[in-house]
Amino acid sequence: MGNNHIITHDIRVGKNAAEDDDLLQECFIDSGAWTEILDKREYKYVLQGRSGAGKSAIIRRIREEKADKEKFLQCIFALLYRVGAIGLKIRATDKVQYSYLNDVLVEETDIRADTAIYVVKMLHSYLDIKIHG
């Protein structure tokens, strides 16, 4: 289960502050607060605790997880665009851009959270997509 880190008396592990610790992702231990926050992300929270309780670690983990998910989705959408399965509308004023024969008009870095995704019509039946209106 993950990487094993061996701690001996002559090495120092981690930084004093979680927000500065490079091993946070690998060594993060869920005390229950993390799971509770994940279960109720639509709510706003005030994170309270004594010094060293892990408040900064939780905030950093939320930021990193959000960035990881956004990067993953950006990569998946870029791949689906590149193979012609979807079209992308980067800005509301843009036309939908489709990739033809690997002629890429949109780069992966152009894809943002507010990018509109259009599944090509020939996949609608296979994916059971129904357009209303």
What does this structure look like?
The protein has 133 residues and is mainly alpha-helical. It has one domain (18-123). It is 29% helix and 6% strand. A two-stranded antiparallel sheet has the order 1-2. The protein is elongated, with a radius of gyration of 21 Å. It starts with 23 loop residues before the first helix and ends in a 14-residue tail after the last strand. 7% of the residues are buried.
The strands making up the biggest β-sheet line up spatially as: 1-2
Main sheet characteristics: 2 strands, antiparallel
The share of residues in helices is: 25-40%
Structural class: mainly alpha
Cα gyration radius (Å): 21 Å
Assign an overall shape.
elongated
The domain count comes to: 1
Number of helices: 3
Q: List low-confidence stretches.
A: none
The tally of beta strands, per DSSP, is 2
